[in-house]
Amino acid sequence: MDMKRINITEAAPGMLVAEDILNSANQLIVPKNSALTDKAIARMRFHMIGSFRIFVEDGEAPAAPEPVSSGAEPSYFDKLRDTPEFLAYSGSFNNTVSVMEDEFKKMLEGKTIADTETLTAATANLRASCRTGIQVFDLLHCFREYDDITYAHSLNVSLICAVEGEWLGFSDKDIQILIQCGLYHDVGKMMIPKSILDKTTPLTPDEKKTVESHTIQGYNFLKDKDLDNRIKLSAVMHHERCDGSGYPMNLTADKIDNFAKIVAIADVYEAMTSPRSYRKAKCPFEVMRMFESEGLSHFDPKYLMVFMENITQSYMGTHVRLNDGTVGTIVYINKLCYSKPLIQTSDGNYIDLSKQNRLYIEAML
Length: 365
Ligand SMILES: [Fe+2]
Prior knowledge:
Helix content is about 45%, strand content about 10%. By secondary structure, it is of the alpha+beta class. A hairpin with a 4-residue loop joins β8 and β9. Fe (ii) ion (FE2) binds next to loops.
């Protein structure tokens, strides 16, 4: 067989690698004679491997990567999917999720602690690749095809935490810790059987208990690791609620760590705006509606208000559809009721949603 040097952009699953591929620290990334997989390619991209050699039949040209089809119906988030920012973001996102998965699995096997510095830097880079904090939200809203909910969810939560930390004026050091709180908050889910996590029918009481144990299992797993204590507390406390209605310990506001309170908001927002097999993704304003109806007793208002204000303000001027089918533009955010702004319809009329009990924003267009 001949060998041929190709660029990483030409790499495709199934190609046979003709040399050991090492990263800058001389660690083996992909061994010689192995067939490339999506994961191996993502790993090589993450370690910035520019080119490498593959085996080819005499005169055979390397296969081209499969084109990605879109096929989505146009909406606010669908349109974003075609932007260069989104394409760049999705590449980095995939790479980071892939490395995160590998690192966490190694950690679970007891081999080593995850390379927290690399993961934090990769997450911070993802954040930095977006011009504004709200662009992070926009991109994560339209990036929902990932099949592994736990890793992609944790990375998204981590990004939301980073942006919330910026909005709150936190120091760079604290933002780095918040990123790590997000990355590790659901680490205990690695100890829960996948058959239960992936279940699409209602959980039995015993299964529910098992899922809820990811908080304690995550804490027990992290407690002896060389990590900031707030990361460990976020793992065990991110399902606690300020009114004592959460789990596993029914803690009230004064007993819940501040960083865990921030992770809790990010976790709920991320989960609700993601599609699940049993329901569609919720529009950001629907999540705001939930935060306003029950969130004020569950979450710390000093974090929740900053979060809601920044997100809703960013959607000024956005076209939306109401639940009765009316289409209009958001022209004023009501600070007493973020989920119910003033809407101007195409015929020039105004609808003050805060005065309309039955009307709400259903979708962004
Ligand atoms: Fe969780």
